[in-house]
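User: Round two. Same drill as before: sequence, then structure, for each protein.

Assistant: Same drill it is. First protein:
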Amino acid sequence: MTTESQASEPAAKKPGTLAALAVYLERRSLVMLALGFASGLPNLLIFDTLSAWLRDAGLSLEVIAFFGLATLAYSLKFLWAPLVDRAKIPLLTKWLGHRRSWMLVCQALIVVGLWAIAGGDPARGLGLMALFAVFVGFVSATQDIVIDAWRIEAAVTEKQGAMAAAYQWGYRIAMIVAGVLPLALSEYAGWNTSYAIMAVLMLIGVLGVLGAPREAQHEIRAIDTGDIPAAPGRDLVEWIVRLALFVLGALVLGSGLAGNATLLSSGLSALGLGGAGEQVKALWEAKPWGAAAQVGGVVLGALVIYFAARPAPGLQTRPGRYLSVALGAPLANFFARYGQAAGLILALICVYRLSDFVLNIMNPFYLDMGFSKLEIAEVRKVLGAVMSVLGVGLGGFCIARFGLMKSMVAGAFAGPTSNLVFAWLATQGPQLWALSVAIGVDNVASGFSGTCLIAYMSSLTGQGFTATQYALFSSLYALLGKLIASQSGRIVEGAAAAADAGGAFAAFKPLFANLPAETFASAVEKSGVSAAALGAGYVTFFIYSALIGLIGIALAFAVARLNPQPKEI
């Protein structure tokens, strides 16, 4: 989080290599490791591992998929982030500070929720188990809001890279633990015992909170409603109407962000509009324009939320004042602090990792090339995880050593460059060493650029609005990528057909003349083109994915050159 005083100070001398590495051994970084673990553990337990328990209990895949909506809260967390910024926890806030008190309460509730799931039986109490899964998802998303805010407020900008790296390391460790340990324990002690042990492991996060240094003094910006006469009856009715609209908008917006209209469809069915619900679900899942419908849902939901929080024309009321300020002030604060540069900064956030988000067809690509599922899993899950950890650490080191904006520019190059490695992989055939090189390079680049973006978004938040603004940024940066990624398969197939027809992309076909016969052989019947043409289609796609990354590179240079400094508001 950058302040006016920080911006006006002369540039400090950049630390040496050893000093940049030493930041990982600082107390805050070690605490961040524990908090990252506490963040990742409940996420995977309700999103992925729980599905194995449900399937083991004989439930259908349709029911299991519905449980995935328990994580919808992660897509909507920016809506109640203002509450986290403004509300104090009785007694605890005075003792631990604003952020740590919220973290401790969230972790205690997650332990309770996981313990309740551990005591459940999906065969006889599925509804109750679903309720607890949703509860854990909501509280865990709230914990993420607070952890991000504490991370930003507890360290200066130069150390945000290391803090982000430590968080991601802890998160990845938790994903391994939550993905492997419950399954192994279930074989010997049963699912109930394994989830009870997972609840106990959340104490790692509690220890992190108790060992965390207090964040900078948190400022709660008051909302003045003293000039509006109290009208208890009218205000109560207005609160009910506004919150009902707010929930409706959140449901539509969340369905768009999550790319899943099941909950929205179920809600319409409950209102007797089953036909409309099925139409919405079909629209969401349509190929290839379903992603456009999902983005439309995001826009529509946001508009409903906007009108739910907007003051009534010509009428000042306390609910209208409170909601409009609580939700609108963080965004207004950002634009006021950064002025004309605010739009450029938001554009950079939206496109910075665009070249990564369009790579949503990688598993089909690997299979088309002739790699086995086991080979893909081994390289992606083992080597990929190791290289990702290295990339994350490298990002934190470079931010500490060379500064945030220089690292941001380097990260903007990382994604497009690593995508070109996949174009090279396409010409190598099903060689395991080549797959290892490509996935290794891509994971290092992705880890590096992801750490840089997290640190940069952290630096943009303003005092009093840390949680809300960061939650907004983190929801914004993937939205454009979702829409563009919907066209990835069409680009491959279109370029392949053009290559077979002798078009411009046919120039890539000679690259595949001497490859083993099994290369793309299994995909020829499905695609209706020759193996060489399909290879040319993939090469074209990877070059395209690198070219759209040029937008992020240009914006990164523009922002770095402008170097906008926030005004103190």
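Second protein:
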Amino acid sequence: MRICDDVFLHADTCHVYVLRDPGRRAAVLVDFGSGDVLDHLEEYGVDEVTDVLVTHHHRDQVQGLARAAAAGARIWVPPVEHDLIARVDEHWRTRPLDNDYDVRQDRYSLLEQVPVAGTVEEYRTRRYGAYDVYTHPLPGHTVGSVGYFADVSGRRLAFTGDLVHGEGRVWSLAATQWAYTGFHETAGMEGVAATVLSCMQVLDRGPDLLLPSHGEIVTDPPAAVARVRSALQELLDMRRRTPWEPEEKLYRPWREITPHLLRNTTSMANTYALLSDHGTALLLDFGYDLSTGLPGGHDRSSRRPLLASVEALRREHGVDRVEVALPTHYHDDHVAGFNLLREVYGTEVWSPSHIAPVLHSPERWDLPCLWYDPIPVDRELPAGEPVRWREYEIGVHELPGHTLYAAAYSFTVDGRAVMATGDQQDTAWEPGITPELLNYQYRNRFRVDDFTASAELYRAVRPELMISGHWQPFDVTDAYLDMLLEEGRRLARLHRELLPREVDFGAEGFAARIDPYRSAVRPGGRLRIEAAVLNPFPSRETAEVTLCAPRGWIAEPALRRVDIAGHGEGTAAFELHVPPGTAPAERLRLAVDVTVGRMRFGQQAEALVSVR
């Protein structure tokens, strides 16, 4: 079927769109189906396929991709779904099946992985063959779906995957259920809401035709979107107490705290924009923008950063550039969008020095909520020293508690003294009604006195307004600061009353940690392994540390003795030799066996090594 000059639809397990190069007998394809199109290239006046652009990972779109790779075509896939195509063997090996509450259709993936040339660049235009193609995220049918826009023969074509079907339906409602239905009023409707928002963004780009993966070509995009939006809205509102307002989420996400300080109401963790009179902005945290709820699972394909609110900053608040992004801590819901900000807008990431190592080398750390990819840091900020951005002086403070690797920022904006505290506490306190949540998690490396220290920091800085990671801005009173100090001291007292007095490993409860936590080595290669060892006793003691490795591997030395001050920490370093000929394997286990003084604590830490 000819759509316009040099653009054709080839019917297969999905629609495969052929974009022929008018200057040579070559083509770019959008989606691939079973690969049947390769047997019909002559009918389209084509000798070779140079590139295949994939809209999403479902098997009906990509089941024949091995044929494309064998034919020498470059395969480009959505960033979030790379691992469901190029590393799907690992997905099948590790995907939980027992007692499974993850209802996403991530198992509707390739049976065997296929190498790809790379990922498409979202929010940007790139040339593929003879065509300039703009890629836009279109979550809905899958979390990671993308759409492609190209101007051909005077018409704007939108290749929308399975976002819509024909003249205003969807190919699958089951695919839009990203999480198991729970007790929250929108649980199980994340993809439905995302489909509505994605349809609105498609129309914003002014397409003349929608070219779906299934169903007839859409010749009246506004009418088709209106039809599907109406039905999806009704379906969504069946689970809500009040009607859902997609226009507010997409076009008016920012709420004014002061004229120069805004809060993003659509992000999973609060993002704040500090505005400069120079027309630029600094963002405090930037995680999951335009969130409709977290999908089930924890793999890369279940977590997606977006940039919709940045466009709203430009449109509604005259911001021509987001210059800097600051993290309050390393957790994914606060930093997931940092790399995308840098790639699309040139935003610099500034980070406190104690958080930066976690951002740029996440694989080395045994911590929860780590983002999947390294986040390069453009400028490290020493804690305790203010930093200047535009007309603002921003205080940088260590804020251990919720996690050891967290910071608070203090600044004055529009005459108000503000402190950003991340997830340290919930700032929802109402005396006698709502208790304050001191948000500690032991695996985040909480220490017994952290919340006492943070309360004392707040009393020293004396902010008028506190902004936090998941709660409303809070007007600070003396009573609130007194309460935080009292609660911090009470938390510390209870830990000391409950934990052993004679063996003090603190709140974490372990004698050692291994660095790096995750690493890879070749057969016959070597690794440097360091174990940080705690002395749980008040007096200086000698720790004996041995590295436990897979059979046949050699650790040098076999035993380390480390002299450690009372309640101090020492380091035991080893060189690990992997025998030549070791078979490739994933996540082989290491541990350190620790004795401090006369007490043996056994294998107190682990690390994972892959042989590749």
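The chain has a mean pLDDT of 96.

User: Perfect.
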